[in-house]
Amino acid sequence: MADVDPFANPEGYGFETRAIRAGQPHDPQTGAVTMPIHQATTFAQEAVGEHKGFEYSRTGNPTRSALEQCLASLEEARYGRSFASGMAATDAILRHLRPGDHLILGDDAYGGTFRLISRVYGEAGIEYSAADLTDPAALEAAWQPNTKLVWLETPTNPLLTVIDIAAIAEVAHNKGGLCVVDNTFATPYLQQPLRHGADIVTHSVTKYLGGHSDVVGGFVATNSEEVDDRLGFIQNGAGAVPGPMDCFLTLRGIKTLAVRMDRACDNAEAIVELLQGHPAVSRVRYPGLADHPGHAAAAKQMTRFGGMVSFELAGGRDVAMKMATETTVFTLAESLGAVESLIEHPGAMTHLSAAGSPLEVPDSLLRLSVGIETTEDLLNDLSTALDGL
Ligand SMILES: Cc1ncc(COP(=O)(O)O)c(C=O)c1O
User: Fold this and answer.
1) What are the residue ranges spanned by the domains of the chain?
2) How many Å from the N-terminal Cα to the C-terminal Cα in the chain?
3) Over the stretch 50-78, which tens digit does the pLDDT of each residue have?
4) For residue 81, what are the β-bridge partners?
């Protein structure tokens, strides 16, 4: 990373200002107010090894560096690294592990994370167990002499379970391990895991940070120089870096993160109320609900409860499958976190790879990624679909 600029300082500027300005000084040559897309793969050197901070774009690129500084500032982290996808970011963290090491994964996590851990790392000799991380005692019980880290999401994908980050980090630290938090669902606008004791925070920037369904990316932040050095080595050595255009798109998306998140939260709250009152719905999962088992932890570590809503249909799998095809404003699609609202059936779509595992999800479950459209349009769309089931 290049030198940190004043706009990256959380003590100097608020979240929204940093989202727009951190890491993005006006272009010294032209005064351009947005970060240029530096497509160059290589950078001139005055003499061998003497350069302006960049040599080769896999190792470092000015547009990527701007994104890394901006996101690190939003997570209030000392260091940040961008990757080509959320999975590439996950992979870079897991490369800390050696054959014979063990990790503990929350028993409710993104299916792709589980697939990477069980199939790719499992086959490379890394052991794992899944544990109910809503209970810190379950983590303690699952901890083994060779356990190196605990991996959690909160709220989880797709069950919206809330994990108390501070409680889990405390157990991990007492045992001499690391606590990694996937902060994709909450974003740094609603939750900053490092503040609660996490050692590493990771994102699929494909989701809320990009925010417009037009860029795939990943990010990792930490306050540990040692962890960051290793991540930097892997970032350059394995080379799963985002291109400059992708970094630019992500930077552009981040500028409106705060207003998009607030709007998505408003819409999600209205939808939760509608779903709760509908007879076709047997259960609504949303951390903002006072009777959600993780509500107290969510209220402690989040500023609002997010734009993701999951619910179960009383009629089971077939009715859930039907509902998923009956909406018009909600598009049936994988992914989440963008301006447009999406609906999906996790058991048959995003979490199919977890079928038959401890991470299998109920087949009556639907997941909504609530966007920023007109509230009435979203409510009408869902109630028309539910009434027709
Ligand atoms: C919580 C979570 N983490 C990680 C990922 C992986 O991110 P990507 O699709 O950008 O590789 C996803 C993707 O859906 C996700 O939902």
Assistant:
1) 6-255, 257-387
2) 53
3) 999 999 999 999 999 999 999 999 999 99
4) 220
Structure tokens belonging to residue 321: 């499958």
Give the closest residue to 103 by CA, choosing from 91, 111, 94, 112: 94
* Correct CATH for 6-255 of 2.60.120.590, 3.40.640.10, 3.30.930.10, 3.40.50.720: 3.40.640.10
Whether 266 is a known active-site residue: answer: no
Spatial CA neighbour of 8 closest among 106, 266, 18, 16: 18
Q: Is residue 58 flagged as an active site residue?
A: yes
246 in catalytic set: no
Type and span of the H or E element at 130: strand 127-131
Q: DSSP for 242-279, please give it.
A: PPHHHHHHHHHHHHTHHHHHHHHHHHHHHHHHHHHT-T
- Amino acid occupying residue 3: D
Q: Quick one: pLDDT band at residue 2, thresholds 50, 70, 90?
A: very low
Atom of ligand 1 at shortest distance to CA of 88? 11
Output the CA 59–ligand 1 centroid distance in Å: 24
Nearest-CA residue for ligand 1 atom 7 is: 86
Determine which residue's CA is closest to atom 16 belonging to ligand 1: 110
As assigned by CATH, the class of the 257-387 domain is alpha beta
The Å distance, Cα 47 to ligand 1 centre, comes to 42
Q: Where are the alpha helices (DSSP H) in the chain?
A: 15-21, 62-74, 86-94, 111-115, 122-123, 136-142, 165-174, 187-190, 225-238, 244-255, 257-276, 295-301, 317-325, 375-387
187 contacts 60 by C-beta, under 8 angstroms: no
Q: What is the whole-number distance in angstroms between the Cα of residue 336 and the centre of ligand 1?
A: 9
High-pLDDT (> 70) share of the chain, % = 99
Q: Is residue 187 left, alpha or beta, with left meaning phi > 0 and alpha meaning psi from -120 to 50?
A: left
Q: State the Cα–Cα distance between residues 78 and 71, nearest whole angstrom.
A: 10
Q: Is the CB of 86 under 6 A from ligand 1?
A: yes
